[in-house]
Amino acid sequence: MITALVQFTLPQAVSLAQARTLFAGSAPNYLGLDGLVRKYYLLSADGRTAGGVYLWQTRAAAEKFYDEAWERFIEEKYGVLPTVTYFQCPVIVDNLRGEILDQE
Asked: Is the alpha carbon torsion for 46, 52, 2, 82 positive or negative?
């Protein structure tokens, strides 16, 4: 599995309530998305940095998603371009399911 960390610095700080509204508006777009296991929306304590942590089945699925249209969507919605950093996930601890997943 692959984790993608997406980050962008907002032009002005937003409150947690504002972020919740913004993020809830785009959340349905991620339901059933091919290759996406889970997404966490992020907001820093000062409200200036936002983004997401995405768990993907493969890097190819992630790279297919983070295309120019996605970048334009982020830029239009938040006023900035995002950065994407990829990480391998060799082991995942899932406390909701009570299991450890060893990714070979």
From this structure: negative
Quick check: 7 and 78 in contact, CB under 8 A? Answer: no
What is the distance between the alpha carbons of residues 59 and 38, in angstroms, rounded to a whole number? 14
SS3 89: coil
**Rg from Cα positions in the chain:** 14
Q: Which two tokens stand for residue 1?
A: 């599995």
pTM reported for the whole predicted model: 0.89
Q: Tell me the average confidence (pLDDT) per consecutive run of 10 residues in the chain, 104 residues long.
A: 96 95 93 96 97 97 95 89 95 93 79
C-alpha distances in Å from residue 91, one per residue of 6, 34, 50, 96 = 21, 22, 26, 15
- For each of the domains in the chain, give its residue range(s) and CATH number, in order of start: 2-102 (3.30.70.100)
